[in-house]
Amino acid sequence: MIMFNKRLNLFQIWNSKAKRYDEFLTKEGDVYQQEVNWPALKGLIGDVSGKTVLDAGCGNGLYTQLLHTMGAQVSGIDIASSLTEIAQTRYPEIFFDIGDLTNDLPYQTNTFDLVFSKMVLMDIPSIENTVAEFYRVLKPQGVCVISILHPFYPLYYMFKNKWTSEPTGKFENVKQYHDETFTTAFYKHIKLEIPVWTRSLEHYINTFTKRGFGVKEINEPKMSSDFLEKYPEYQERSEIPIILNIKYIKHV
Ligand SMILES: C[S@@+](CC[C@H](N)C(=O)[O-])C[C@H]1O[C@@H](n2cnc3c(N)ncnc32)[C@H](O)[C@@H]1O
After folding, report:
1. Which of 15, 64, 79 best tests ligand 1's pocket when mutated (most atoms within 8 Å of CB)?
2. What is the DSSP letter of 236?
3. Where are the domains of the chain?
4. Mean pLDDT by 10 residues, the chain (252 residues)
5. What pTM, to 2 d.p., does this model score?
6. Which of 42, 81, 136, 199 could staple 203 via S-S, CB 3.0–4.6 A?
7. Closest CA to 187 of 5, 36, 23, 62
């Protein structure tokens, strides 16, 4: 298990998982992300044709490319050079940077119409500087759309671990909703363990509003009956929110 210490090397962790993660996304496909979350996110993003977009934590560039096909002028950035290399080879028409979102971003102030960050913020140790940088690189009235593990999702496992004799093996060290807790998510079927920081809803809202963002809209994607018929393994989790998507606007 990944143990938290101050020298936790996110670059090394993600780089070491890049090949397996890419294989999973491209060969097996993350059906929940593709069939449930992406349509919900597209609703928040709206028309990006001709807009400048940053895909922050772009991974293997799968969604960067989808934004590109929607007509956006998109750039991707990720800490894992092995993932940006894959992305750059696969999508040569898009420019991918290597960078750590906890540091300052290598872009000028007021550059982007949209900062898109999907399934990334709960994987980084602190979001304060990241949010400040998203604000800085956005144009006035620019939009930031984030997709995160729903802050309520770990509660399901937290109570199950507390009240049942058989621990779930998930979020076992999460004892308090309000605390920021370092834990890991283990994807059994792909043998991939990744760092996760659980944070409250208030943390995700207030960090942005304190920086000058307004909340425009949120969504909590639901699985349709067609989806559940196709993938019955998701039935149990269809009763709880897995993902939270938030659209913020940069007020000036
Ligand atoms: C769960 S993946 C999501 C990838 C992509 N956005 C998607 O939805 O397919 C999380 C991504 O965040 C990246 N990441 C983690 N910590 C980061 C950091 N501090 N700075 C930049 N990227 C980071 C990882 O390398 C990985 O590609």
Report:
1. 79
2. G
3. 10-150+200-250
4. 65 82 80 95 98 97 97 97 95 97 97 98 96 98 98 92 85 91 79 87 98 98 97 92 97 86
5. 0.95
6. 199
7. 23
